[in-house]
From TrEMBL:
Transmembrane segments annotated in the record for this chain: none
Listed Pfam families: PCC (PF03479)
Signal peptide residues on this chain, from the entry's feature table: none
Superkingdom of the source species: Bacteria
Protein name: PPC domain-containing protein
Domain called PPC: residue spans: 4-140
Organism field: Candidatus Schekmanbacteria bacterium RBG_13_48_7
Alphabetical list of SUPFAM superfamilies matching this protein: AF0104/ALDC/Ptd012-like (SSF117856)
Length: 140
């Protein structure tokens, strides 16, 4: 991963073989980013998507091994147990122009990924929500 600090955040360039979530976590740790917004494009393979089943209160995971364009990568950074935690969603398109989307657990970069991270400058916390079983943003 290469990245550059800009006036409004960080511009990242990921290359083939790098895993998106791992690299974003590394950036947050290196730069002390505890809350923020993430947006990106690029191309990936070996993607693990999730869909939250409300009744089961757990994610259904699906691993897809193919090459895809990132139509949209977005998410946020917030604090849980004192550490930055990513909440990422992705929409990917295949060679037949079909699309898949959901919660992003992992994705390997196949060509490049160009990602922008905008830190909020303050800490936004996550807190367990008993009704869903999820750690939701704690905005009061």
């Amino acid at each position: 991963m290469k990245y550059k600090k800009t006036e409004f955040g960080y511009l990242l360039k990921l290359v083939q073989g790098e895993e998106i979530i791992t690299e974003l976590n590394e950036l947050c740790e290196k730069e002390g980013i505890y809350s923020g917004w993430i947006h990106g494009i690029g191309a990936v393979e070996s993607v693990v998507l999730g869909f939250f089943d409300v009744e089961l209160k757990s994610y259904i995971r699906e691993e897809i091994d193919d090459y895809f364009e990132i139509v949209n990568l977005m998410g946020n950074i917030a604090v849980l147990d004192g550490k930055p935690v990513l909440h990422m969603h992705i929409t990917i398109g295949d060679h037949e122009f079909g699309a898949y989307g959901g919660h992003l657990f992992s994705a390997l970069v196949s060509v490049t990924a160009e990602i922008f991270v905008i830190p909020f400058g303050n800490r936004i916390e996550r807190k367990l929500d008993a009704s869903t079983g999820l750690n939701l943003l704690d905005i009061e």
